[in-house]
């Protein structure tokens, strides 16, 4: 693939599409922003698609252009890692609806020239996956050696196996679920209401003006709590107070400043998020996640979603993840078993809650490495 | 006490105070709004103080003047109930900082004539209790037969036993904690940031204008999720969609309306809350709760807080309460044991999370009834 301009870093392309959306509408043309690492082999059997989470992006193992930070999954992807450019042709695509270059509410609507805003169609996880399939066609990749994702990335991996059974040889689903629960929906609804309550949101028409940063920051703060465990927060912060500027341990201010370290941390999470994320994208992607229920089009029987799959599945959950608890992974494994699919499942122990899949987890790496290598030797 | 104007419904009184606050300041004069049910007996041995939760009030067993709803704890308080006006002289006081008639940020500041707003002092749970003691003095009540509370009411009951060991004969603490955890603080901080992000908040100076209703509604929505369990939300709403106006089961709107019943429920919780609660009070009371750590003034040793108490304690937790989980009640019981205090403890099973203490829970009623009667027969 050397010299193939379709591969490499910071790729952008507009494809005709259309994406046939679950809403019944069609969306076209479709912009894609993506990264690839490694080279597609001669028989095109080494392609791995990595799907990102709600606020993730295509910068899996390359520098984020806004934050300047390393890629979000360099612990899993890179030289000597389970997903290795030396062996794999790795593709990561900014999901449709997001804000890092793929079509989303901040993109220009060809019919008006201005940003879509709320005229962007409401999409689903399935729609994101159907869009990705169009890009893979363009890249000349028919079958994926593996599709890998954590959290919302896992929802996409499951949807890939369900929607394109002939194109997926294996799937790795980490800290994820086959449906959003009432509590999941509730937390997302709080975030959406926080954004829409910000007068600067202006029904989504804020591009070129001040963005609804306060609302988005509150949304991020609420969500961030769900990514961590109670025990993890206690270990990391407890009730410790902020240090004073002179470095001494602070005392209560008897005011509304961030007295506790956990308050300061949360405020920082909210404030730094608004620099890199679009509020409307947050609305659209949380909506897609809330709509996600892989069993729904199959009379509520999850096993039916996997009726045609021939893929091998690897599921990993974390015991302190209360956003997508182990019981949700177990439900998927039961459905895969019922569908006769090969599925391995491990619950790992970690104090860090849902975020564990993004952190240093040697056992997770060993499991993913073993699973991928076993597939390559089949 | 017949004809004693200090007792009865819808009582209001201004007392000189001052309340000596934990911040070092003094607060005076102090307004109290309170309800009493039943009659103080000749030896003044039948007084029970009921302490309310964050958004609760003095209308324990009488109609709320704004919502028109029955009192919030008629399941526990009333004729034939464990706390019975036929046997007990029941007092419930709107906490300092709140907005139902006791001194709070919406009250008139005597030094300016206008509302305090953010000039109201930041208070603690201990300050609320010290204020209550001033009112009990006025009522001629020296010793409480029992102090009873759930959630933040339990924090007050614990503080009563710690601050006034000679005035408390027994304490009932339900679904509560002796300290706010990092996660508790984090959720409250989200709520405060939501309020302060609302431009109508205007640094607390919104009285006589539009209140920061959007921010307060978001704060309430986020908090409300923590009052319910994941299982309870699933049982109550699952992924069910809103019915259409014609009564038929709805379908996805592919928009941002409340498609799911849980979204509609949460929005209603947020909207209805702002009609009855003041945003600044929400800031002050959540701050008081976050500051709460009964062990802190005792070198972190909770048992020392109970060194002087001679009270009997009854603790009840609910297995699905993840806001103040059973482990926090157990920690209190261990400290009481270490202090040599008499303590009984039961964890009850309920799918309804933290809110269980407000709901129909016959076992809770039997436990409280037995505990109070045993104390009256001592």
TrEMBL record, chains A, B:
- UniProt keyword terms in alphabetical order: Acyltransferase, Amino-acid biosynthesis, Cytoplasm, Methionine biosynthesis, Transferase
Question: What reaction gets catalysed by this protein?
Answer: L-homoserine + acetyl-CoA = O-acetyl-L-homoserine + CoA
- Give the main EC class: transferase
Q: Quote the subcellular location field of this record.
A: Cytoplasm
Write the Enzyme Commission number(s) for this entry. 2.3.1.31
Which GO terms fall under biological process for this protein? homoserine metabolic process; methionine biosynthetic process
Q: Name one GO molecular function term.
A: homoserine O-acetyltransferase activity
Q: What is its main location?
A: cytoplasm
Instruction: Give the quaternary structure.
Output: Homodimer.
User: What is the name listed in the Swiss-Prot or TrEMBL entry for this protein?
Assistant: Homoserine O-acetyltransferase
- What species is this protein from? Sphingorhabdus lacus
Q: What is the lineage of its organism?
A: Bacteria, Pseudomonadati, Pseudomonadota, Alphaproteobacteria, Sphingomonadales
């Amino acid at each position: 693939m050397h010299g193939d301009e379709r591969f490499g870093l910071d790729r952008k392309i507009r494809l005709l599409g259309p994406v046939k959306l679950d809403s019944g509408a069609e969306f076209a043309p479709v912009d894609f922003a993506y990264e690839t690492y490694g080279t597609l082999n001669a028989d095109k059997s080494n392609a791995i698609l990595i799907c990102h989470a709600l606020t993730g992006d295509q910068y899996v193992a390359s520098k984020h252009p806004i934050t300047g930070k390393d890629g979000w999954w360099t612990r899993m992807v890179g030289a000597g890692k389970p997903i290795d450019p030396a062996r794999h042709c790795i593709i990561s695509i900014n999901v449709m609806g997001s804000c890092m270059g793929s079509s989303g509410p901040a993109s220009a609507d060809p019919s008006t020239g201005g940003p879509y805003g709320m005229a962007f169609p409401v999409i689903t996880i399935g729609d994101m996956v159907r869009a990705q399939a169009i890009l893979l066609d363009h890249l000349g990749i028919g079958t994926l050696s593996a599709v890998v994702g954590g959290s919302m990335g896992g929802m996409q991996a499951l949807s890939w196996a369900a929607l394109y059974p002939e194109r997926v040889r294996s799937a790795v689903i980490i800290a994820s679920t086959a449906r959003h629960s009432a509590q999941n929906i509730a937390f997302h609804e709080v975030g959406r209401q926080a954004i829409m309550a910000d007068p600067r949101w202006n029904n989504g028409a804020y591009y070129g003006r001040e963005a609804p940063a306060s609302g988005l920051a509150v949304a991020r703060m609420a969500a961030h709590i769900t990514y961590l465990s109670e025990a993890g927060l206690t270990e990391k912060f407890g009730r410790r107070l902020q240090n004073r500027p002179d470095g001494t341990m602070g005392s209560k201010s008897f005011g509304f400043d961030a007295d506790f370290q956990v308050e300061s941390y949360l405020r920082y999470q909210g404030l730094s998020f608004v620099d890199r994320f679009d509020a409307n994208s947050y609305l659209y992607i949380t909506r897609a996640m809330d709509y996600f229920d892989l069993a729904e089009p199959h009379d509520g029987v999850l096993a039916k979603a996997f009726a045609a799959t021939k893929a091998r599945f690897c599921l990993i959950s974390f015991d302190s993840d209360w956003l997508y608890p182990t019981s949700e992974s177990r439900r998927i494994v039961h459905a895969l078993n019922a569908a006769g699919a090969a599925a391995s499942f491990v619950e790992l122990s970690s104090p860090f809650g849902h975020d564990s899949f993004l952190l240093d987890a040697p056992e997770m790496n060993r499991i993913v490495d073993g699973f991928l290598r076993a597939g390559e030797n089949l």
